[in-house]
Known about the structure:
heterodimer; A: mainly beta; 7-stranded mixed β-sheet; 4-stranded antiparallel β-sheet
Amino acid sequence: NAGVTQTPKFQVLKTGQSMTLQCAQDMNHEYMSWYRQDPGMGLRLIHYSVGAGITDQGEVPNGYNVSRSTTEDFPLRLLSAAPSQTSVYFCASSFGPGGYTFGSGTRLTVV
Amino acid sequence: AQRVTQPEKLLSVFKGAPVELKCNYSYSGSPELFWYVQYSRQRLQLLLRHISRESIKGFTADLNKGETSFHLKKPFAQEEDSAMYYCALSTNAGKSTFGDGTTLTVKP
């Protein structure tokens, strides 16, 4: 039982590049979310999903896309990276609202 | 809109002293409230949820709907409690909002 697995752990992108942050969970959780963590700003919700095929926007969705084709996977796509997207990204999952299990995070730097 | 406020960014206490980390929320419906903890170089982990009314690592939190608060308390702080603490609110629609966090330092 691996829990929530995020890849990669570290990534450096150039401005304008695109990439996908991967998130997978093996706990059969319906709820999954993506957050970014910036110094002094806590965790801000980017996108979330309450089941396969269902996604919704959080507080800071601009510049990011998600899809949920399976229960296990919830990838986050950066369409055209900007320096403002430099952050630590966390994926989380749970059976119901809240009570999340978190991944170990992806540290992204956009230069 | 839902909002979680943690008024203290930093909190420092001595070992053995009581500690209270404040959390206030705003939400028009019936929220579920949680506390999460992030120790140095570790991932975020769930500490408490209000519906279970449990004590974890000596911490308790009571939901006060009148004051819209969910403060985290421990009667005797330990050095290993030093960490970042986040309060979070979740709705039935699956949206979870976190506060900005409080960094707790327990001095020897």
